[in-house]
Amino acid sequence: MITIITGTDTxxxxxxxxxxxxxxxxxxxxxxxxxxxxVGTDEPDISVVAxxxxxxxxxxxxxxxxxxxxxxxRRRGIGIPPxxxxxxxxxGLARTxxxxxxxxxxxLLVRLDTEGGTLLDLATGLAVDHPVRVYxxxxxxxxxxxxxELTVNALRSRNLEPAGLVLGAVPEALGLxxxxxxxxxxxxxxxxxxxxxxxGAGGLEPEQxxxxxxxxxxxxxxxxxGYAVS
Length: 230
What we know:
Blueprint: E1 2-7, H1 14-25, E2 29-36, H2 45-53, E3 56-62, H3 69-76, H4 83-94, E4 99-107, H5 119-126, E5 132-138, H6 144-156, E6 164-170, H7 176-189, E7 193-198, H8 206-216
Helix pairs in contact: 1-2, 1-8, 4-5, 6-7
Protein name: ATP-dependent dethiobiotin synthetase BioD
Binding site for substrate: 37
Family: Belongs to the dethiobiotin synthetase family.
């Protein structure tokens, strides 16, 4: 199985959600980051996943500037692998691993190479000969309905039906917008909320993170559980 993790935007909690999904997937899982930018500014996403989930990881391309991958590459005048090469490497991993989880960069249409290839292109290509499951990580607060529906519609334009929505960083105290969006997100998208990751979950010790991840990804996730992150 190949699982694609995309976000409605940058900073929505995609990396921590990826780590939680990797925990649930169990042994034999590898998490792949096709393109990592901003190297040296913060802990790389793939390192966060490895630390929290304790799974095998792989990173294909590293770029210095904290920009979209194609912008970061063109700014430095360097070439980066095309989407087709990423797809080939992921297919190879899928032959020997139980689950391959692919974390995108930013949103679904962020360009991952200098030829215009996006995570949507990567998912579409992989789905030709592999079962592909796509999760959309989104915010709970104001503004999320538009961004989430646009992302879901882009996936459906390629005949990719999202497996579920993941709330990437749910605050402990839900405001009016968050309370309403718990019902509105599934209503406007037709996609269920399958996980709710509490804000601050990435700050847990790895053992705590792995122990609690199951409650965040339950069939009926609790939106107020798991906030003791100290």
